[in-house]
Amino acid sequence: MQTKVLSAKMYVHGEWVSQTETFDVFDPQNNEVIARVPKASAAYVTDVIDRAAEAFHSISSWPVHERINVLNRAADYIESHRERYAYTIAREGSKTITEARGEVSRAVQTIRISAEEARRIKGETINFDQKEGSENRTGYYFRFPIGVIAAITPFNDPLNLVAHKVGPALAAGNPVIVKPASVTPLSALLMAEALHQAGVPRGFLAVVTGSGSELGDALVKHPEVKMVSFTGGTNAGDRIAQSAGRKKLSMELGSNSPVIVMNDADLHDAVKSTVSGAFAAAGQNCIGVQRVYIQEESFQEFASLFAERTQELQVGDKQSEWTDVGPLINEQEAVRVEEWVQEAVNAGARILAGGRRNGAFYDPTVLTDVPVDCRIYKEEIFGPVVILDRVETLQEAVSRSNDVDYGLHAGIFTSNIDQAFYAVHHLHVGGVMVNDSSDYRIDEMPFGGTKDSGLGREGVPSSIQEMTEPRVVCFKLTQPWSL
């Protein structure tokens, strides 16, 4: 039976709008067309930004209690329609239905955290009398919204990563314009549906769909866009930084996450955690495990357990409750992963599990003896492949963990607190997970990386800090005794 193709609309200035041109959205599992979505032009996006700026400047104040209510109502709406949201995530992207349900739950939590943090946007009093001659001054600072936020989101978490930009932006009182990944725009439009139903003010939210190469400059160069929040690849991040000019940038750009397993670790726990961390979302996860450094004495047992557990994973239909690993986002990506693995094998790497492609599906793959100059060792694979490697000491493991251009998350398994703290203080990353894989995050914590992994920090409170600015107020009092 032929799939019914959805005719979707964009959300702009409180209305659902069409465009003359459209593009198709495919299910990567079978390449079926599941939706036709409007294709916006650069000129149209410029007009959307102008209208968002006008809306922002026309509202003298959007009270905090109203922001809280809008966000909480949106979270309630998503929660009450969770199965439709999960089905959409799984249909347009790579996640299994089980993973998609988990993402819906996280998105609800992200929006609720945003509502809570809206009430915590506070300033402090300032002791001006710390400066000689300022004994008759008193004051404080408060934080205010900066204006229009441009949010550019990727395909791998098509709902929750939108929530991570929209939630804090609205909590801070800013309009936000979302440009979702062209392969997964439907989840972002569902987020707009929830916020529309919740009563978001006209002009304070837009979701525009189209090609990033066509819309990117219009979004990031516009003088009314005061901040660009981007999650995606390093090359695209570099282009945005060059185009944006003098404005705030928040960028989460990817990784090549290491995990260290010491001899004193609980190997069964380490295997369970790292297998999950490596192959969730078909490995298309910026904090997913890519390299595992195992101390020599434990290597053979760990590698055997890891390969065995990997081979137990079920690859197949995303909508099945029994599936562990779905397809990559398209066949082109699966071919790329296949080529990188073959390049490593040609250079001397050994395959312990997996290594087979079927269309957009690539079996969870475990490699060892990978030469350090292979692309799959140095770059972000963004696919279901993990490298196991031997090390003699913790110092060697940390040094090799740092020997890439990325630094988002890392993990270490050990029962020795001294070893844990050595890793915490010497790994050049944005987050160290002790007795857990790199693939651990809660939506409230600061999230971001070092080196080529990005600029700034996400996580709701951190994002709100970036999306507001301090304004200092100082009173010079005419009567000294009034203090």
TrEMBL record:
EC code(s) of this entry: 1.2.1.97
Reaction(s) this enzyme catalyzes, per UniProt: (2S)-3-sulfolactaldehyde + NAD(+) + H2O = (2S)-3-sulfolactate + NADH + 2 H(+)
Keywords: Oxidoreductase
Keyword Hydrolase attributed: no
Domain of life, per lineage: Bacteria
Aldehyde dehydrogenase domain: residues covered: 16-473
Molecular-function GO terms, alphabetical: lactaldehyde dehydrogenase (NAD+) activity
Gene3D superfamilies documented for this protein: Aldehyde Dehydrogenase, Chain A, domain 1 (3.40.605.10), Aldehyde Dehydrogenase, Chain A, domain 2 (3.40.309.10)
CDD domains linked: ALDH_y4uC
Protein family according to the UniProt entry: Belongs to the aldehyde dehydrogenase family.
Free-text function comment from the UniProt entry: Part of the sulfo-TAL (or sulfo-SFT) pathway, a D-sulfoquinovose degradation pathway that produces sulfolactate (SL). Catalyzes the oxidation of 3-sulfolactaldehyde (SLA) to sulfolactate (SL).
Protein name: 3-sulfolactaldehyde dehydrogenase
